[in-house]
Amino acid sequence: MSTVLSRRAISLRRPAAPGVILAALVLAVLALAVVAPGLFTPIDPLAASASGSLQPPSSAHLFGTDQSGRDVFARVVYGARYSLAVGVGASAIALLAGLIIGVLSGLAHPAVDSVVNRAVTIAMSFPEFLLALVVIAIVGPGQLSLVVALSIAAAPAYARVARSQTFVVKRAGYVTSARSLGVSAPLIVLRHIVPNTLGPLAVMATIGVGTAIVSAAGLSFLGLGPAAPAPEWGVILSEGRNLLDRAPWITLFPGLVITVTVVSISVVGRYLQSRSTR
Amino acid sequence: MTLTPQHRGRRAAIAVVRALGGVIIAVWGAATVGFFALKAIPGDPVDVMLGVHAQVSESVKDQIREDWGLTEPLVVQYLSYLARLVRGDLGTSYQLREPVASVLTAQLPATLSLAGLAILIALVLSLTGALVIRRPWARSLASAAELVLVSSPTFWVGLMLITVFSFNLGWFPVAGSGDFRALVLPAVTLALPLTGIISQVLRQGLDAASGQPFVLTARARGLDHTQLITRHTLRHAAADSVTLTGYLVGSLVGGAVLIETVFGRAGIGRVALRAIIDRDLPVVLGVIVLGALTFAVINLLVDLAYTRLDPRQRLIEGTA
Amino acid sequence: MSALSVRGLRIRIGGVDVVDGIDLDVAAGECLAIVGESGAGKSLTARALLGLTPPHADVAAESLVVGGVDSARFTDAQWRGVRGTGVGLVSQDALVSLDPLRRIGREVVEPLEIRRRGGGSLDDAVVALLERVAMPEPALRARQYPHELSGGLRQRALIASALAGDPRLLVADEPTTALDATVQRRILSLLGELTASGIGLLLITHDLSVVRSLADRVAVMRDGRIVETGATSRVLDEPQHSYTRELLAAVPRARAPREVMPAPVVLEATSVTKSYRSPDGTRMAVSAATISVQQGKTLGIVGESGSGKSTLARLLLALEKPDSGHVILEGAQWSESRESERRSRRGAIQLIEQDALGSFDPRHTVARALAESLALAGVARASRRARSIELLALVGLSAEVVDRRPRELSGGQRQRVAIARALARGPRILVCDEPVSALDVSVQAQVLALLDGLQRDLGLTMVFISHDLGVIAQVSDEIAVMKDGVIVEQGTATDVLTAPQHPFTKELLGASADNLF
Amino acid sequence: MSTFLALRLGATVAVIASVALLAGCATPADATHRLTYAIEGANLSAGHMDPHSSQLDVSATVQRNVLDSLVAQASDGSFVPWLATDWTISDDQLHYTFTLREDVTFTDGEPFNAEAVKANFDHITAPETASAQAASMLGFAEDGGSYVDTEVVDEFTVQVNFSKPYAPFLSAVSTALLGFWSPAVLADHADELKVGGPDISVGTGPFILSEYTPDQEIVYTANPDYKWGPENIDHSGASDIDELIVRILPEIAVRAGALTSGEVQVAGNITPAAVESIGSGFTVNSVELPGIPYSLYLNEKYGVFADERVRQAFSIGFDADAAVKSIFFGQYPRAWSILGPTTPNSYDAALEGSWPYDADKANALLDEAGWTGRDTEGYRTKDGVRLSARWIAWTPIPDDRAALADLIQSDLKSIGFEVVREALEPAAYNEQYGPKTFDITDWGFSGVDADALRSHLHTEGFQNASQVSDPEVDTLLEDAVATSDVTQRAALYTQLQEWNAQHVAIVPLYVPSLITAYSDSVENLSFDLYGRPLFYGASPGK
User: Fold this and answer.
1) Phi, psi dihedrals of residue D300, rounded to the nearest 5°
2) Which domain, by its residues, includes C480?
3) What is the pLDDT of residues B212-238, one digit of tens each?
4) Looking at this predicted complex, what is its ipTM?
């Protein structure tokens, strides 16, 4: 849902520096968790123990344990890999697909452009989450299909921005002067149109990663993502949902981690956006 | 520059025909892509119908395939589907063995009341926020709150609200779709991210508008802060928000799927999800077609509202 | 009773005194002009008179008597009492200074609306106000939106809105800069009538011809201080301060006619036509235009906005294909050949645009922009940096500019880099489309001098397009006058300027007669 | 001039919302005795409203209210008259002759007689009904079944004929699966029975189905003419409950919350985790399900489980006791045999505790079986192949079973035995279940007669996931189903249970119970052998 924000005007005040630094720090910690989860906890996320089931948060188990006695903190740490892979993967694919479709239809013959634009508008009229659901209905649940579904769902938004940006750049002064200098058409596209279209899309993608993570958690909460016992954040949330009154910590902490992650990504994304268009 | 009324009438007629054509193409496009994509799904629909451990012989399964016309060539199935679609018949659900149209429309009121209340709460919250919040510290606090609201997963927020308000405080029933009290928590959960987005867009719209030269002129006439907003900048910010509302209505249905699952409410979202999990293709296709129709109409309304709000659009009604 | 009396006005932003202790006096029925270049603090002063300075500016004055009330230490609520009734503001471009989403009538009458207690329709008040600014068909115009009116009518509506509260002082900040010469003249005469009717007018402008035609007294402002003030005729004819003299010298004048030796024609367009399909019917941008440019000479093309000047320029550069007619460049077919064939000859003719910043890719440094041009001119990669520095020197810029981004340079510097990039291709013809319109008068003079020098040193042929007849008169050997896509008159500079044939040329000459002395 | 459209857009939507709300919850308050029963019922609306064709327990649970049976089975396993006043079994046990009551009518006016019994049994065995369970309970099978046909002797006498003795027939005929729909419905609306609804789900039972909103609720109203209830329920005449509302609340938190908040008076399918949150003022009835407890089925003819020692090592290689106790909060007892303790006259108590968790013995067995190597991740290998078993299950997988699987997987990993779990959608699961391309699968199969083992262990059994094919076992199963002598059947089934303890084709884990919680205001609510509530005879109290 928050991809729409990136197309808004930047907030007049650049975000306070400390906020941005804190957000960057959070993302650094997350990246570390993806690369070397072992650093954070020695416990194996899949190690179950009947005796340790449903323990409240303690020094031994920071986030407590779940019904199978597994350490929730370890599962959240090892889960970072799943969620960030989906978030970054889906946004990158959506950006690439959107850029290609958007730029090509922006430069193509108006008839082609109107057809492509019509298709993009139809896809855009569909909410991203429902589009992802339908794609999963086709490719079946699983980690890979999450990435495929979310990139297909997000691509139309990127395509629309790329197309409108291409129209703007096509008419910009520096393209006219490049033409009058005698720069060839394909070279103009590569050297001026694509780089200047990529800028806003890249910023949009950073915020898109946050949306993809939230949507991925939603989809796996519904059982459409990676199958249990994978420590994906959405799966952990759904494991805890029927134990809310007895063990709320199973649901509380993964949700907090998702929120903090997405907030950090949005803060960094907006900071990049304000710096790039200053 | 001004157009004669008769000239303007003809242009309006063309615009309406073009718009309706757009809706029809959108629905046809969604139906076609949906149909062939769903037919590409592996797995035998009869297995889907019978479920697990049905001690049924192959001959009976062949009989069922006959009845549902699954043995005819793909194109014939597609054309008969289109023919029925035109008459508003969305086929029969594999699982529920009921016409898809009646299955979906039966669930409409529950989702509509949830979405309606959610939009109402979101609009009221964001409008009061935009009017009231003025001091810099309040603005940064508001923008931080909006960011958190938008970033937190709706279903997790729902679970947390249940934990606090149903289990601990017991103010609201845990869930179900019975009386009004059961609607409060789900509607608030759905409304929170909406409030985040709308107030963010509204505030950024107000900030952008207040930087415009005509605001300087208005202030030079002696208008105060509230008059400036109500008479000038809110209308500009509203123009932006209207285009956003079209997008938000769409995201409401997406959100409904999650909220209805978390709160155990009946509704279109639950039916769509169950159909997807059970691979009940006719219902999934019905949801796609109904969705395409609804969203195409909503976008049409939003475009009309936008041109109504911004007179500069009226003359140049051409394509984007 | 004076409309305005200011003593010791000081405005500080970020520790810098942008306005450093100025005194102003405007009597009822008198027009005082403040003239100066951008950055002198003119607009800030104007806004200070309404208490509308930006929040991060701190304003102090010994006394600030506006409309008979000392507002030096006003709170915001007190200021609201004065705004609209004591002092009115007229801004530069009515298209953005009027709320585009509201009808003209509602905008004009708003000052009355927010003050009236009782009900009662204000329609007749609206009509009266519009009639006061000589708006034709006031009842119809009141129901229209700003974008549905012409530039002149919009400006009249803006003035009517400032008059609605019946202020004693009217502050006009560059009221006619966005208008064409002919329309500008009519608005200035309206402001003159309003002053005559008893209102005090404070006119902010950078254009000395506007000062001469409207102001009773003038104050010359530079870097936040008033360097000279006095009666208009005295200050403009016998300037005391050196800066005032410098300003007056920079105003473009018809230069002495150079010997008109016929030279071979290097660029020729015969009855080229170009039309655009817009939602409400096709619009003829250029129709049957025939021009020719002799080598080493400058052809000036003058016309108002929307007259098709820029389209003609793009046709000459073969950036757009004419519907009919054709363009010959250096004797060979130019508009008819295919782009691939044309590309090799593009070095011969180069473009200089009005928006220099826009003509550079935002991500490129000056070095990279010049390198792109030098590469196409066949200069080896190794020697490109040295060649770039040479080119920058040629246009009067120091070497350290090469690693900067255009965004970090001043308007004048950017235009010089654009010229350097054009020269890098070794052109024989330069097409300049409004190259100096966005620059301050003094900077404008320097760039024109640079172009003149380059033409003489490199034997360049030039096509110079502008809406400013003064600039055209200064640079052109031959002049073509365009109106609504048609070249209405064409001939040597002296013939067109001294013996204009076409009525529009006459009107254009009349409108800018003041600065052609 | 319109101020701003966004506000008006919001306002119009609000109007629609409030109208929808009012319509939704206008419940008239009046004096009728109403009782609301909340069930999980997630798949009921997926064409499972006809117990003749459905294999889901929920179908029989709800439709018991409209379907009567010929006989009723008392808690001690004996049979009492219901629609049949008495019955005789021929010496060769091939013919069951029932004498029917003459005063019974369907709620659509049709008379209940021998013709009606025949019409229903024919409907169960008809191919287009595609019966998933009722037909096999009747003993019918397309080839090799024991059921032959049903004969109308005279208007109120009906005889059911078999080709081979079929002992479980009487307990089968006491369930709702073999209940009686109105012959008029069978003639004209047979294909709509799966969807169900008023005027379609018409029986002779104590209630009439008056309203049905799929996925939301079913409303049963009392049948005023009802006076032919089963003898083991001491209530005569129409039910005290005027209106029985069955509400479908799939989420356990929702069901439990609805009970504690008083929205519903009886709540079914309560999970062990939720039992504690019920609190005082409510009675929790937990009935251990008869039939086969929740077990793992080890496929002998696919992978590592061909070797009996590996199967034995697997069965004692994880601490089932601790896992079952912690995951089900002590609500479900540990299962030691392939038959549940409450399965009438067949349970072999001697097996309890006979194969406890013993990691050392498991390791020894695996070494003996040659799995002596170890790979980098600590799993056992033999000639380079890792000791691994593939476990398939169909979605949705209940949370507690997923947690149990986690514990099993984790314990077996510590003895070097890898278990790979695959959650498959029903269609994908069927594709692998047909050709039996898996090592382990899991389910529980409730049934009031031990003959359920035949379908699981007999060479021809449909549910023989372990692919057991042992002539000795086949004859034991066939003899047991053929004799109606209770002691002889018990002895035969005991031999079968002893055989499995040694052979380990099936690893029983826990005996699930059907837990129903109801408010103390509900009086004399009784339960059948499966633990399902019987509302005839109960009363809603206040």
Assistant:
1) -70, -25
2) 265-511
3) 888 988 988 888 888 888 888 888 888
4) 0.77
